[in-house]
Amino acid sequence: MTNFPNVFIFDHPLIKHKVSILRDKNTSMKEFRELVEEITTIMTYESMKDVELVPVEVETPLEKTLQYRVADDSVAIVPILRAGLGMVNGVHRVFPTAKVGHIGMYRDEETLEPQEYYCKLPDGIADKTVFLVDPMLATGGSACDAIAALKARGCKKIKFMAIIAAPEGIEKLYHEHPDVPVYVSTLDRCLNENGYILPGLGDAGDRLFGTK
Ligand code: PRP
Ligand code: URA
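A: This is the predicted complex of the input protein with uracil.
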């Protein structure tokens, strides 16, 4: 845990193992992509702990019984483009029927300020639990702006999930959106002068998609 009540840091040996391989500069694009997906799946179980259930009557081979299911169409995944795309399959493994919206943000390389360039969300997004995903939380600018964009479209139940975070990003998210739960697999040391996380893993989008 951290000093921020909205932030949950995973302290799971399997996640530590997988993140250590993710960080390695010699890890291939294929393995990197698979690890991002696997880590996201593990995190999704935890972050869905309070997801809303509705009662359903089920008939077993022996009798009728009252059971609980996640309400139909109540969950959406919104990756922050591009790198967030790498996490979508990880959530879908746990929750295959979730619809997917997309928010496109890029960081201006000089100012580090995020710029929104695309937003397309499923109908009824305002009433869904939205899993906003991006592997990297650095200055926090992209995540804060993406959350603001979702709130501006009426979303009230937003959860943010990242694989690696810098303390600077955690702090900014807490100050701007203390109502949004934040799930982070690993909290790193700091940002460098170019806004990269240390020790980090480099540029997540480039490593996922093989660009430079
Ligand atoms: C990366 C990352 C986050 C953002 C984090 O995206 O995937 O979206 O930087 O940085 P911040 O917390 O300082 O805003 P980038 O802008 O490199 O775009 P990409 O996903 O297209 O590579
Ligand atoms: N975006 C990345 O992909 N990596 C960082 O270290 C910071 C922002």
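The mean pLDDT is 95. Residues 7-47+83-209 form a domain with the Rossmann fold fold (CATH 3.40.50.2020).
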